[in-house]
Write a structure and sequence with these properties.
heterodimer, A: 365 residues, alpha/beta, Rossmann fold, 2 domains, five-stranded parallel β-sheet, 10 helices, 27% strand, B: 289 residues, ten-stranded mixed β-sheet, two-stranded antiparallel ribbon, 8 helices, 14 strands, 29% helix
């Protein structure tokens, strides 16, 4: 217990609170692991999770907490005040940025043991996917990767005759085909899930609040956590901005070849669009992984989504079905994607795209 | 002391190109018609392990897989590429294990080998969770290096690895022991070696051997390296409570087939008139332009 130093922000509203007692009175919160970016800001994925976490907490009538481990956290604190966070558990130290597995795991595991959150959300990012399983293993908790939806619901185990109220439904497409699995962790806490960037909507609150800052004591870290050393880092600004694109032209395995796929870039440039891809296209090396849209890639909601040679697996649809308008270009009239498209063009992409451009230029004067 | 390397590999259904013939009428996948393959990332892991083995005199490379009997096929595949031996962890009590229970079972098997370095793929294509590697490292209480792309340096006690992150790379260094999960962008695995293929083509587990002709059994008696090890729950001293459905904290509450809410889509052909009509509609409604 003495690991946590409660450190209240000096403001009128919170001065009267007695640290320690309050901890005991608000058990079982929703907690979001927040990542710090190279520029010191909070990663978007974390803000998206806070937006979702806030809704889950409201539904459960509990509070939303954040945990933030990094270095020079000033900007990050400011940002978190726009997401309805009640408490920020934080540690601000050079040894916590860039992210490393062991120090972060130890601090998170000990925090969760102490705070016993009922739900813990992590980004399905390089860091989150490294950290969350290790934390889950240490706490012997269930963890579901790459959820595409999170809901609250009940469950009755008929064999055991036990009912559970207000569990976290961790929903994700499962194995290869057209099935969606709802996963629950009835007995272990926290209920842990990772979510990819873009899946949850980023929704700040209309006005900021003043989260309580609670420092995590990092003297619990020892040499054991220092065994992995970062020798060098080479982090680039993302080249591809799929999430911000108004129009996306996406290619699937049906594009047939890398050189055919190249035609999408020229097409995209004319329209002011960004190029996306399915996993099958990425696996076939038609383009880089950064462009992958879907459950294990990015989730997008553009004004227009032009799907070229994409049959439309559940995993891919999960990442694009909220697009305002969808065009599906495919030689297969029965491609599942056609069913969710506003416009379906049956035919060869390589013939259709030049015509599209031709008529676009003709009318765009 | 010579270096002990373990590679963890999984046999997976090839979900990458699920064709229509693989779909059942209820919309689920008919696993039995999909070819069973060596999980792609695990092949990258095997390659990285083979590189380490070649740099360390007397190093041994052991492949461990968990699965049904036919999963021994991927151990053979690894033997053809340069692994020294392999173990199949197989027991009906493992069935239904989620990642936590799976990592527990595998960690018990790995511990039995007392390795200095463990390689696995980042994730398996049938689940994509990327959880089992880190969970094994945690259970063995050793550090992990995930998303490994390249070995930068190795000197028997210390390893430097380049990691592939979302927006870049990072080079990290650690002392052994360590678990390294290898990314799909790492060097592809070498192909089968003709000599090794000849040497190990009759490799099989004990249970498989029992179903074969006596001449093969004699061959195995003469060449014990042909016998792939087989371990069950007791062999790895695993606690049954922590295995299978019962040992898995995650439960599948339900599986839904996806019902596509059919939109009222406009159907066009590739003829000029159709394309022009669609483009003008999109421009009039300000979706493009």
């Amino acid at each position: 217990m003495d690991n946590i130093i409660v450190n209240l922000i000096q403001n009128e509203e919170h001065k009267v609170e007695k640290p320690g007692i309050e901890l005991a009175q608000i058990p079982e919160n929703v907690i979001v692991y927040c990542e710090q970016k190279e520029d010191g800001e909070v990663a978007e994925i974390s803000l998206e999770l806070l937006s979702k976490g806030r809704k889950l907490a409201q539904q459960l009538n509990v509070k939303l907490d954040a945990v933030l481990l990094g270095y020079k956290l000033g900007k990050a604190f400011e940002k978190l005040s726009w997401f309805g966070v009640n408490r920020i558990f934080y540690a601000d130290s050079k040894q916590l940025f860039p992210y490393r597995t062991l120090p972060h795991t130890k601090l998170i595991v000990n925090l969760f043991r102490l705070e016993q959150p009922q739900i813990a959300l992590f980004g399905a990012s390089s860091a989150g996917r490294d950290l969350a399983p290790r934390v889950a293993s240490a706490l012997k908790c269930g963890l579901t990767a790459d959820c595409t939806s999170l809901e609250i619901g009940d469950h009755t185990d008929e064999k055991k005759g036990v009912s559970y109220k207000n569990l976290l439904y961790q929903i994700r497409p499962a194995f290869g085909g057209n099935i969606i699995a709802t996963i629950i962790n009835p007995q272990t806490r926290p209920q842990m899930a990772t979510v990819r960037e873009g899946v949850m909507k980023l929704e700040p609150t209309p006005t900021p609040n003043q989260p309580k800052l609670q420092a995590i004591d990092i003297s619990q870290l020892t040499d054991i956590e220092e065994v992995i050393k970062i020798i060098s880092r080479n982090i680039e600004k993302p080249k591809v901005n799929l999430k911000g694109a108004q129009i996306i032209v996406a290619g699937g395995y049906g594009m047939g070849s890398k050189s055919n796929f190249e035609t999408l870039y020229a097409f995209a440039q004319t329209l002011g669009a960004e190029v996306g891809a399915t996993r099958a296209a990425v696996d076939a090396d038609f383009c880089e992984h950064e462009r992958q849209i879907g459950q294990t890639g990015v989730t997008v909601r553009p004004k227009l989504y032009i799907a070229c040679g994409i049959s439309g697996s559940v995993q891919h649809r999960a990442g694009m079905e909220q697009s305002a308008k969808i065009i599906s270009i495919n030689t297969d009239p029965n491609a599942p994607l056609n069913a969710i498209a506003d416009y379906v063009i049956i035919g060869d992409v390589m013939q259709i795209l030049p015509k599209f451009i031709q008529y676009y230029k003709k009318h765009n004067k | 002391m010579s270096l002990k390397i373990v590679v963890l590999a999984k046999q997976v259904p090839d979900t990458r190109n699920v064709g229509k013939d693989a779909m059942k009428e209820d919309g689920t996948v008919n696993r039995s018609v999909l070819p069973a393959i060596f999980n792609p990332d695990d092949l990258n892991a095997l390659e990285m392990a083979l590189q380490i083995k070649s740099q360390s005199e007397g190093a041994t490379l052991t492949v461990i897989t968990m699965g049904p009997m036919r999963a021994a096929d991927i151990i053979k595949e690894a033997l053809f590429r340069g692994a020294d031996n392999g173990f199949l962890l197989t027991d009906s009590k493992f069935a239904g294990s989620d990642t936590l229970a799976t990592s527990y079972a595998l960690s018990k098997a790995v511990a039995k080998c007392e390795p200095d370095i463990i390689f696995c793929g980042v994730q398996a294509i049938d689940g994509d969770t990327a959880q089992v590697g880190p969970q094994i490292a945690e259970k063995l209480n050793i550090p992990q290096i995930t998303y490994a792309e390249e070995i930068i340096n190795f000197d028997n006690n210390t390893i430097q690895i380049k990691r592939r992150l979302e927006h870049g790379t990072e080079i990290v260094e650690t002392k052994l022991p360590v678990l390294i999960s290898v990314h799909s962008s790492a060097k592809p695995c070498r192909s089968r070696h003709a000599k090794l293929l000849m040497r190990f083509k009759h490799a099989a587990t004990k249970s498989q051997l029992a179903t074969l002709k006596p001449e093969f059994q004699a061959l195995h008696t003469q060449n014990p390296q042909l016998t792939i090890g087989e371990w069950n729950v007791n062999d790895v001293q695993a606690d049954v409570e922590r295995l299978g459905l019962g040992g898995s904290p995650t439960k599948v509450k339900k599986i839904d087939s996806v019902v596509l809410t059919q939109k009222e889509s406009k159907k066009f052909t590739s003829c000029d008139g159709d394309i022009e009509q669609m483009v003008t509609e999109l421009m009039e409604s300000k979706v493009i332009g």
